[in-house]
Structures are given as structure tokens and as C-alpha cells.
């Protein structure tokens, strides 16, 4: 394959930039970045995003639907408690809600990055509405069983799992970047406002009927209707995406593979995922066993167990709403690491109180504090994912985050439910608190939103893609790109240090191999080389370049000796040319 023509190789080697006097040879122009506290706070007015009509409509519709969802969660869990006395089966309700995300999170993110998100969201909202409507019919006719309840909960949450990455990924399309932390906090407030109101309403409706299945059935019917509000907002929305590729869409499995490759070389995201898993695995004991705690605390009082469960669940929702209101000011004063550490300590205290202190009013107080800690943690981690992933892969990053998050809840629910089944609820809650305490030293070393954040806005190439003498077809490959640098011997170590930072840039964008080599006969000549699976993948990698990635490439380019650009060669794997291909 012939190399690119002469010096017209700016697709891989940035043009020289003017440097202020006194800069070192490797100096580069400053790149805009998010400065300030550990979690970029944006406006101190946490409600500012609600002044934007698109975001406000989405928020209201989401809150209405969320109330219905949390009413259903309470009613379904209490219905399972009425249908069976097994703590394991009751805990499996949380698993049925979480497992679909564990299985489908990355796949859901891939579809959200490929297909038009508005239509995708309408489809999966309709799916959930249909599943809940079926559950309502079966419950109202009194023919629902524990297995059917688990199966339909699982089916409904397949829709929720496929919907979630696209739903979160549209937030940056609705608000300016500096309002993103507040928008995420308000989204959490919406969910947790629903959590504060929904469980109590769900518990009241179930308690209002003699048969739990009848009360739960009407709750399910109301929830089916609540999805209509979200579907209507999505139907009338005129979407303008932030990132739109000019190239053919990726295939779903290829998109999944590209997403995994990106995450493999994104240590910042890996730290977020590990913290999320360790936190949710421990906290799952509260979510999965709270109905059993409610039955224990309210069984002999004037408040029914169903209503008591709604009150306890609503207490966490109330704490979460308080957190969402205060988080803008909290983020302005404390780092993300300190917020996460304080939240973990609070949850340790909450789980120990639920385990050993049998006073309902004290449980409520600590659950309010636990709800505050929950939203503080989830909002901080969610913002971190959104600010640490570029637009082209953001839904996949959020899908993986949801996959890890719900995976922790699902596996934790199984583990703590099994502990409770074979020992007691007290032992299960105390064990989860001990596990979180043991993991705390590790999580303190996994920093989140620390220091200056990279500029992940798409870099706008100044020139079109290279046109070669033998133009490859989109699927031709593998493709090897070689970039020749001439570096003074005295700058060799500095160059090698800088060029190795480019490795992750190439691999995140889709390269399957990368290397840098020094010429044995010419110590000043070094060659960077990377391989893409196809010419189309190479073109996609150019679209995926962020401003921060380009800054790293510029730093390497500035160490090249001379005024000419480094020479770039594009090579395509040599295959035998058939007569049909030759004539074509």
C-alpha cells in the first residue's frame, strides 16, 4: 500500500502550534478543562436546569413515572411477602429487578450509541407499560404466583435495563455542560422524590384492600398508566444529538466490543465501576431485606406491615430528596472522595442500627440519613461517568456503569438473602456493614473526579480523511498506520514518555495493537505504529478523537525535529486480487 501523499498527513500528526516564549520544546497550547473542586459544581443554584423547558418536561414526566414505579416496587415486594414467607424468595425480587441490567447493560449502551435514542426510548417505555399491564391483570384476577411475579418483574426490568443508558445519555443534550452536575442531581431528586412518595402510596393502596393481590393489582394498573406521560414527552421532543457520525453505523456486537476496548483503557472509569460495585453489593442488604425489617418492627403495632414498609422505604426517599437539594452546596465545599467516604460511613451506621436496634422511629431517622448517603454516592458516581466519557461512547459507559451498579445489587441481594435464610436478618445486616467497613481502605484509594478533568469534546479535524492512490474499501483490513518521527538523541527519554501516553488514546479509539520502535541504524528515528481492524474502523477512530486526545498528539508532534511533518504511511493487509475485484 502506498503511503499518504507527501506532507498532507495531518490526520495523524497535528500541525505545529505557536508556543509562548520560555516554553519547552514539548510545550503545547492550553486546552479548556473543567477546573475547581473535585466534583465540578457548575452553578450554585441546584434548580437552574429546571428553567430549561426540555429538561423540565423530562423531569416532570420522569417524576410521575417514578412515583408509579416505586408504588409498584413496594406493592410487588409486599405481595411476594404475602405469597411466601421465604426470605430468599423475597430477596430475589431485588435480583429480578437488578439482573436484567447485569445481563444487558453494555448491550443496552451499545444500542443507545447506534440507534436514534428518541425512538429507542419510546419502544422500551411501551415495553415496560405492556409488562406492567399484564402483571396488573393477573394480580386483579388473583391468579399470580411467586414464580409469575418474579418472571414478570424480570420482564419489566428488561425494558428498564434497555431504556436506562439512553435515558441518562440524553441529559447532556438538554443542559449546558456546566449545569450537568445539577441536572444529574435533579434527576436523582426526581427518582427519590418518587421514592419518598411512591412507597407510602403503594403501601396505603395495598393495605386498603383485604387481599394483597387486589391492592397490588390496582397499583400495577396505575403504574402502567404513568408510563404514558413519559411516552408523550418523548413523542413531541425534537431531538438534536450532540454527536452524529457521518460514517455507517456500527453493528451491535462490534459496538459492544469497541465499548469494552474503550473501558479497558480508561482507568478513571474503572475506578468508578469498582467503587460502585463494592458499595451496592453491601447496601443491597438494606434494599432486599427492608420488607422483612418492616414486618418485624410493625407486626404487632397499629400500623400494618405493608404501610410500615412503605414508611421505611419512603424514609430513604425523603433523605435522598434532601440530599439532591443540598448537593450543589455540598459539592462546592467537599471533594468527591470525601463525600463518598462519608456516605459509606453513614451506611455502615444505618445497617448496624437496622440489625440491632428495634425501635421504628430510630430506624426511620437512620434510613433518612441512609437515603442522603445513597443519593450523594449515586449522583457523584453518575456525574463522574458522564464527565469521564466522550459522547461517542457515553451510552456504553453508562450502560456498563448501570451493569456494575445493578450487578452489585443483584448479587448482594442473593448473598445477604441467603445469609438471612440460613441465620437471621440481624446477622445479614451486620455482615454487610462489616464488609463495607473492610472495603473502605480500598475505596479510599480509588479516586473519583480528582484534579483537572480532560476536555472530551470532539476534536474538529481541519482536513478531510486521507485519500490514497489505491483507495481501500471500507471493510478492507487490517490496516496499519506508521508515523515516522525524527527526535534529537538528548530528547529521547522525554519523547518515549510522551508517546507512551498516546497508546491509550489509540487503543480506546479502536486500535487492536500499538507500538513504538527505534531504528537500530539511526538513533534519531522512531516509528509509532498501530493497527485497526479495517479502513472503516480507522476512519471511525478519527471521529472519536477528543480535544484532550489531540493535545497529547500535539505534545508528541512538537518533539519532532524540523519544520516538516512526520511522515505517515497507511498500509492495508495484502490479499490476492481476484479477477472480479480487478475488473471492478
TrEMBL record:
One of its GO terms (molecular function) is transmembrane transporter activity. Pfam families: MFS_3 (PF05977). It is found in: Cell membrane. SUPFAM superfamilies: MFS general substrate transporter (SSF103473). Residues 25-42 have a biased composition (Low complexity). Residues 54-449 form the Major facilitator superfamily (MFS) profile domain. This is Arabinose efflux permease family protein. It comes from Terriglobus roseus (strain DSM 18391 / NRRL B-41598 / KBS 63).
